[in-house]
């Protein structure tokens, strides 16, 4: 199969869909790999590295799309890329369709085979291709939240870990999934007091077992959330519904109950956000303020640490890329049920029910 790796063109996105190590494995399996010139520069992988691994370097993104049977990338195609997608071409990437109707309609129109990293699901019900980026984003949420709690960034002027004689900050984490646990771990490591909330008691019991005593759990409901937001300094939104839009756990009116300078980091922004006032921002312009509450809602948080993120992502995507290349998408998905769950749009037909539900469409679900 001919596999293409284009340069990411989303704002401040420095990750790349595949490392030279991944290219080497594909070439070893007799596949052809085209990499756009400069695609890996931001992650510290250069043209010569890809060439040494066996890739052919192409000058433009248009060439990569035109000459490839499968495109492997990181972020969803943006408007400039929509028309480059060819009928029957496999696009393997993060899509997050439920948060973008224009993207969904564009991919339906182009009739490609859209396989979404974030909905590939293994037998245990986990999301193996989302996990490493969730780990990065969860850890970064605390790193960024601590920074924006500083007064020059319009935060409360609070050191998250405190100092002797001064109490540490308080962190509220919504969701005890991968993002939430990684955020809690980082915040606890800094010495902050952490409250983590979820509706899944099994997850809360797990957190209670593995976290230090200054990480406490609480069952998530609106009453409890309203209580905690009044006293916590940093709020991390880490709620995920597989392939669907995130629920609004914090509504606009709740902002007035928070102290001025409170910081919200909504990691769920890719799925529409779990805060009503969330709107996607970029690393170039990462925050905005509503009712004296600082919102950090960067839609590609792991893109700020592209080397770590690219290596972590290729580690988990490569086995699936090899299956798709070796067998073709139909046979690969028939033999691997977890990969089959990654199918979102097939040649103009939506086949993942949560997408239809997000837009209230009546399109029949095929798989």
Low-confidence stretches: none
Q: How many helix segments? A: 13
Mean pLDDT: 94
> Proportion of β residues?
15-25%
What is the CATH architecture annotation of the largest domain?
3-Layer(aba) Sandwich
How would you describe the overall organization of this protein?
The protein is of the alpha/beta class. It folds into 2 domains: 174 residues, NAD(P)-binding Rossmann-like Domain (Rossmann fold), CATH 3.40.50; 174 residues, Rossmann fold (3-Layer(aba) Sandwich). 34% of the residues lie in helices and 17% in strands. It is built from 13 helices and 15 strands. The strands form 2 sheets. Strands 3-2-1-4-5-6-14-15 form an 8-stranded mixed β-sheet, sandwiched between helices. A hairpin with a 2-residue loop joins strand 12 and strand 13. Helix 1 runs parallel beside helix 2, helix 6 runs parallel beside helix 7 and helix 10 crosses helix 11. The radius of gyration is 21 Å and the shape is globular. The model has no long low-confidence stretch (mean pLDDT 94). InterPro entries: Ala_DH, Ala_DH/PNT_CS2, AlaDH/PNT_N, AlaDH/PNT_NAD(H)-bd, NAD(P)-bd_dom_sf. This is Alanine dehydrogenase. It catalyses: L-alanine + NAD(+) + H2O = pyruvate + NH4(+) + NADH + H(+). It comes from Croceitalea marina. GO terms for molecular function: alanine dehydrogenase activity.
């Amino acid at each position: 199969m001919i596999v293409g790796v284009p340069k990411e063109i989303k704002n401040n996105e420095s990750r790349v869909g595949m490392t030279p190590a991944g290219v080497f494995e594909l070439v070893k399996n007799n596949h052809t790999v085209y990499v756009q010139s400069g695609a890996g520069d931001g992650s510290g992988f250069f043209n010569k590295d890809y060439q040494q691994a066996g890739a052919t370097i192409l000058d433009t993104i248009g060439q990569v799309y035109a000459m490839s049977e499968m495109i492997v990338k990181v972020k969803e195609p943006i408007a400039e890329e929509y028309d480059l997608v060819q009928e029957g071409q496999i696009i393997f990437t993060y899509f997050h369709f439920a948060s973008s109707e224009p993207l969904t309609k564009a991919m339906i129109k182009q009739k490609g085979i859209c396989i979404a990293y974030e909905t590939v699901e293994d037998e245990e019900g986990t999301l193996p291709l989302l996990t490493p980026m969730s780990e990065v984003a969860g850890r970064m949420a605390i790193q960024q939240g601590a920074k924006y709690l500083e007064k020059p960034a319009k935060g409360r002027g609070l050191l998250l870990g405190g100092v002797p004689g001064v109490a540490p900050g308080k962190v509220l984490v919504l969701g005890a999934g991968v993002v939430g646990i990684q955020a809690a771990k980082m915040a606890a490591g800094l010495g902050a007091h952490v409250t983590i909330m979820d509706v899944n008691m099994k997850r809360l019991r797990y957190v209670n077992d593995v976290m230090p005593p200054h990480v406490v759990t609480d069952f998530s409901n609106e009453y409890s959330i309203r209580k905690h937001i009044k006293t916590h300094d940093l709020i991390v939104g880490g709620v995920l519904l597989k392939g669907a839009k995130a629920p609004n756990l914090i509504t606009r009116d709740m902002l007035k109950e928070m102290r001025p300078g409170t910081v919200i980091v909504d990691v769920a922004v890719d799925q529409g956000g779990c805060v009503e006032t969330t709107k996607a921002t970029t690393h170039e312009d990462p925050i905005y303020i509503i009712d004296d509450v600082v919102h950090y809602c960067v839609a590609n948080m792991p893109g700020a640490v592209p080397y770590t993120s690219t290596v972590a992502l290729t580690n988990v995507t490569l086995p699936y890329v090899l299956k798709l290349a070796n067998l073709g998408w139909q046979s690969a998905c028939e033999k691997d049920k977890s990969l089959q769950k990654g199918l979102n749009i097939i040649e103009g037909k939506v086949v993942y029910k949560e997408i239809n539900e997000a837009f209230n469409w009546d399109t029949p679900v095929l798989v």
